[in-house]
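Throughout this chapter, every protein is written as a compact record of paired, labelled lines. The reader may check this reading against the record printed directly beneath this paragraph:
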Amino acid sequence: MVRTESEIDVLVLGGAGVDTIVYVPELPLPFADSRLVPAIETRAGQTGDFMAVATHALGLRTHHLDLLGDDPEGDLVRALHRDRGVPFTEAPLPGGTRRAVNLVGPDGRRCSLYDGSRSQEVDELPPEAVRSLAGVSHHVHVSISQPCAASLPVLRDLGVPVSTDLHDWDGTNPYHEPFAYAADLVFLSAAALADPEKTMRRIAERGRARTVVATDGARGAYHLADGELSHIPAVAPPTPVVDSNGAGDAFAAGYLFGRLTGEPPHRCGLFGAIAGAYACTVPSTRTDSIGRAELLARAEELTS
């Protein structure tokens, strides 16, 4: 299929859900029968939601497609997209909207506890909806949630560029491999990788990816583009760090913004680092992202 003109810049597949944020005095949390914590709050926003909100904030025409439950958690997700002006197409998720609990320490680090009971192996995004939306999209970003796996062959047949985020993949878990090898642009965290370069090169050798980016927190990121490995320096956050939740999604959105607006790889990396650093200044209880004007101004400041 040849797309003469895209109606959507970024189609985000999957990753919609709700997080309950629990601020704790330290991580790991020592055992206790009960304890008083500073705050507990539930809000919409998992990886796909963060990606959709972030690309939209950067001025990219964004659409989000996922499965949702007919429940209060699903209503939170619907309200988030409605309030941010991000078009959202949904289909039913019989097990209920996906949810997680995030324990957040004073230094901004987190431990996420995901409820694995919501999705089943038979769940998948509606193929016709995927085909219709992807057919008018410039780029598709695929979350690694179970319902998205069946969409990978559809996207391959359409020939649309694809990215994915493998998050804290250890380089060996077979669940992530179909996503890793089906994407043209792959993001992942270096946190669980014994040898980031080895894993990145294996992704490129076995799959379609010409570009692989492994983020490494305050140490920046590893950047493999067309076989050449380089380093993306970290960018200092504009205000104190309060939370790392959503930083990886923000980095991916910033990088993708650069890529879709014709920037060279090193500048895409800079955009990603700026967006990721900004995300670390946003409390977990909010779903906010850097805007295009602020990102470009910060990039100009850092390179002038």
Remarks:
- The chain has a mean pLDDT of 94.
- The radius of gyration is 18 Å.
- The chain has nine helices and 13 strands.
